[in-house]
Structure prediction request, 390 residues.
Amino acid sequence: MVGAPNSGKSTFFNAATLLNAETGNRPFVTIKPSQGTAFVKVECPHKELGVECNPQHGYCKNGWRFVPITLWDVAGLVPDAWQGKGLGNQFLNDIMRAKALIHVLDASGSTNTEGESVGEANFDPGQTVEFLEKEIAYWVRSILQRTWHETAKKAAAGKTAEALAVPLSGLGVSENDIKEVLGKEAFNEKPRNWSESTLLEFAEEVRKKSKPMVIAANKADTKSGRENIGKLKALYPNQTIQAVSAEAELALRRADEHGLIEYVPGSNNFKELKEIPEKQKHALEFIRENVLEEFGGTGVQEIINKTAFDLLDLIVVFPVQDAVKWVSAKGNVLPDAHLLKKGSTALDLAYKIHTDIGERFVSALNCRTNQKIGKDTELKHLDVVKIITR
Prediction:
């Protein structure tokens, strides 16, 4: 998770993970990155069996399976961070371990790019989108510039993608990422002939390819938040922008955790389970009317799912040992759920479970169709698979 200071990142993180990263109405509350487990939400195949599942990781609730995924909350980014301002270098180093970025921004316009409180509707959140993407691009460009003479020389020898990939390998940028970016018309010239602006554009495209971003427009339940989200969507039609109320999600999950309500993350309603104190009941009703009914949810779970399935092209697959009862050797129903890249094969799943299983792989079985599948067969989202080994 990335964003300007004081935009609600830590509240989003706490809501998604039920951990307790420090929050506060001031810049740089988060200094060291916090790591937690969030969950993607999918329909659980146990409903097809008519029995409950026994997850060994994650959990299942009301027929929805929640599969673990790692979430990082990093320090806020301020203008000129790429030059070391604020916690810039630390921030930029921290985000490079990520596969995708969730930009949490203050849609209400009550904080500026420095994280300073300016009062609701007194700042254009569109500026935050612009500066954050530019800051990352400037930093990527600065890394390329450190060895640009050698890189351009090697590229001139006909190894352009390989040459450009070397200085960016520590950022999780692959040679294939570079090749795809180089295929764009803007980069037809040899790198040695690129201008500063072309190099910056290249850095922007590399970030988009290697670390795609979704925007969590936080504080959507404010008047200015609603208005600004409409403007942002019109201004950035090709960008995924999700209305979010992290505070509402955190309140609902805490109330569910304490047994006051039953709430399934990503739902558009909740059920009261016991008598709730009047003040808290009023707050929950406000959330129901102004967030759940208006937006169809708080947006937190939607953001996590969009990041996993739309940005990262992941699928969820369920390995089992018994192809009929869908159980493990210990008799647990659908005990495991693995996140794999779309296009992954049965052999990829075997190695994901354990290296030894991958090395002893013979074939696999689609448990729904009872059809045998080979090592190169691509798996589909929500497949239930039995791996056969020698």
In short: The chain is about 40% helix and 15% strand. Residues 314-389 form a domain with the Ubiquitin-like (UB roll) fold (CATH 3.10.20.30). The first strand starts at residue 34 and ends at 43.
